[in-house]
Backbone:
């Protein structure tokens, strides 16, 4: 198999890209194609633009995965390659192709027959003809293998997408070779292109199986959304693994529709550097160009003149040059980027162990010790707080009915605090805010139950706000 011969032309041809993608969505019975079109400009390449004014919280489009499979990461959990069930006994098919399956029922599906045919062709050319047990390496390479199964029309869709050649050079191929599979040269070339396209464009997808499983999906329309650090959309996944892209604020006709490629609760310095390292561009969005990050400086550190000044330090100017000095916003003291780098590594070394520490120690650290060296607004602290929000109410031993009144109050406080950050950063009605509202609602419900109180107006408001944002998402836990 080969990518489409017109690939080079497609990468700059907005009209053809628009047509092919809209036909692709129609083939999957998706009709959300009216609110947007694809345009091209020299600086950002192809992008998606609103064709009319779009009110807040509209589904702008639903995207269907061209390829959906497992995550490549080395801690990829064992799961069935057909129904994606985790925590089940895994078996092989009768032909012993090495792909894990949960049952004969899954083995007899077209999905498996297609996977099986690709792998067995490579297996038959090798010295061994079958696998004794199912293989984790094969599972980790599954998403790339599925590229081999695309129909010619779907290969044309794949060919529309950019593939970054400086990204990893087909790590999945190395895994397959470790298994001593004999992959013909032409297949290997196609696999490499697929891997590069996946690395550049794939999303983490959440799929509802017996648990909510984290997968890797190639969503061809969403792949064309350009990045912004306060994007105007958020995306959710429905039970079929389709991606729903909704706007987090009002969008004017002609405005570009954007998404984020990075962590929105990282500070500007980290975000820009991360985007440069992973996506090879320096972001110049409004948030990146505002030193104080719309009033919530997640990068900020305490003034290095710690005995005399309690001001915050930030880079002197926005720059692509990482050697720019930092300056105290209160006393004007300067520090070299080298000093700041050392300071940041020290702080990370203080904070990182808490990710694997007990919940008690983590909370104790957040409540009593942070003001010693790290400002409350720093991304390291915000991230730990987000982690606590995720644990309290959900981890065994910390379920809602097991929480002390004190921890329940603390969870409420953290939810409100981070919702406020999301608002200050102008992230709009995004998924993170939806989840925080959901957590706040669950906390307030537990509180009122304990006190035997009726729900207040606020509780109802929080519930409605959470559902409004998360409607359609397979992780929405609140019933209407
Ligand atoms: Zn299964
Ligand atoms: Zn098989
Ligand atoms: Zn930016
Ligand atoms: Zn100072």
Residues:
């Amino acid at each position: 198999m080969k990518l489409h011969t017109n690939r080079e032309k497609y990468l700059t041809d907005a009209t053809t890209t628009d047509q092919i993608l809209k036909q692709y969505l129609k083939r999957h019975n998706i009709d959300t194609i009216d609110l947007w079109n694809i345009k091209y400009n020299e600086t950002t390449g192809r992008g998606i633009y609103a064709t009319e004014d779009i009110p807040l919280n509209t589904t702008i489009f639903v995207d269907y995965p061209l390829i959906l499979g497992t995550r490549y990461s080395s801690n990829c959990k064992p799961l069935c390659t057909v129904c994606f069930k985790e925590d089940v006994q895994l078996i092989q098919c009768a032909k012993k192709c090495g792909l894990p399956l949960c049952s004969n029922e899954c083995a007899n599906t077209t999905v498996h027959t297609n996977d099986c045919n690709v792998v067995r062709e490579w297996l038959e050319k090798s010295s061994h003809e079958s696998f004794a047990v199912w293989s984790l390496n094969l599972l980790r390479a599954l998403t790339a293998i599925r590229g081999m199964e695309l129909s010619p029309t779907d290969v044309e869709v794949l060919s529309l997408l950019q593939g970054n050649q400086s990204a990893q050079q087909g790590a999945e191929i190395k895994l397959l070779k470790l298994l001593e599979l004999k992959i013909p040269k032409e297949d290997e070339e196609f696999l490499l292109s697929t891997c590069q396209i996946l690395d550049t464009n794939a999303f983490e997808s959440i799929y509802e199986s017996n648990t909510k499983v984290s997968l890797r999906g190639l969503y061809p329309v969403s792949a064309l959304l350009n990045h912004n650090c306060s994007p105007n959309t958020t995306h959710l996944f429905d039970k079929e693994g389709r991606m729903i892209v909704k706007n987090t604020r009002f969008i004017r006709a002609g405005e570009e529709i954007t998404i984020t490629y990075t962590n929105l609760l990282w500070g500007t310095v980290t975000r820009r550097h991360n985007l440069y390292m992973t996506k090879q561009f320096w972001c110049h969005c409004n948030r990146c160009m505002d030193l104080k990050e719309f009033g919530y400086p997640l990068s900020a550190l305490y003034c290095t003149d710690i005995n005399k000044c309690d001001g915050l330090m930030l880079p002197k100017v926005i720059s692509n040059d990482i050697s720019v000095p930092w300056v105290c916003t209160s006393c004007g003291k300067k520090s070299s980027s080298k000093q700041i780098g050392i300071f940041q590594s020290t702080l990370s070394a203080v904070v990182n162990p808490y990710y694997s520490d007990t919940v008690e120690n983590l909370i104790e650290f957040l409540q009593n010790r942070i003001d010693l060296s790290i400002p409350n607004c720093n991304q390291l602290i915000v991230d730990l707080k987000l982690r606590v929000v995720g644990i309290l109410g959900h981890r065994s031993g910390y379920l809602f009915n097991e929480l002390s009144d004190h921890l329940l109050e603390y969870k409420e406080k953290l939810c409100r605090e981070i919702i406020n950050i999301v608002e200050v950063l102008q992230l709009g009605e995004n998924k993170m805010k939806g989840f925080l509202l959901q957590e706040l609602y669950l906390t307030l419900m537990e509180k009122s139950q304990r006190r035997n109180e009726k729900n207040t107006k606020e509780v109802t408001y929080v519930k409605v706000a959470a559902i409004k944002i998360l409607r359609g998402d397979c992780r929405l836990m609140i019933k209407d």
Notes: The chain has four domains: 7-64+219-259, 67-217, 265-358, 392-480. The pocket of zinc ion (ligand 1) is lined by residues 80, 82-83, 85, 101-103, 106 (CB under 6 Å).
